[in-house]
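User: structure tokens for ABC transporter permease, please.
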Amino acid sequence: MEDRKEVQNLKLRIKYFGFSLVIGTFRAVSKFSFKFENIKELVSRCYYYFKIWLLMSKNSFIVMLEQKKLFFLFLLGKVLRFGFFILFLVFLVKGTENLAGYNSNQVIFFFLTFNLVDIVSQFLFREVYRFRPLLVSGDFDLVMTKPMNALFRVLMGGADVIDFITIPPLLIVLAIVGGGLNPNFFQIFSYLIFIINSLMIAAAFHILVLAFGIITLEIDHVIWIYRDLTNLGRFPVDIYRQPIQGILTYLIPVGIMMTFPVKAMLGLISSWGILFSFSLGILMVILSIKLWNRALKSYTSASS
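Assistant: Done. Predicted tokens:
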């Protein structure tokens, strides 16, 4: 009885936290004024930065492809790890008939979705892993003087060619396995929107890592802590007991990033869950950018 009361109290606290989060997000978003001129300028800036991203990604691809042996070793390692884990999941679910109430196809789809979010975020935000040398060498001073947003440069300064190669086959496998779940149009649309929200949360985490790196110079350890936490989303968070499940869903939103898209595909997300998830994604991006701007104010130039 006491355990049930504790779980109920935890759920009430989570709901109260979620309600406060939604209200706070609406207040933050309401501060922005949207005019036609602003939208036109925003589209123009996005196109400008997209061209810069293409140029930097092209340079990153050229550098990586010059090291052919290293490139093929990394690619082979990713493919083997992915294949072995798929086999592990198949044998695991066959031995237990289901995992937290999900059948083998659904569990595999959870794992594929985890890989999609993880690989796409690494593809887009690979430059974060190279941020510490910029700080230590003083090259970040040069980044600050260039006519582009410094956050954009250190967050999306060059895509990863290995992830670029692995994304298309992953999408094909996702489409095949997802088609076996017989989703309707609304469920597919919800899944895609939740994937975008997951990438927003991933972007917020990476921005927080960059801000923390400016303040402490500790980037490598923090980014790997983030990777270890997200690896808990390889399986649906339903397999964890309370309060771990609640922590991974609401406090450290691994569940929202990795589990909620599939639940939306299966029609298992309530309207409250949808509202909370997107409110959290928007609020995390806003807060991470604010922390980044505050960290920049405390940045000490290498020449000073």
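User: Anything notable?

Assistant: Residues 2-33+112-297 form one domain.
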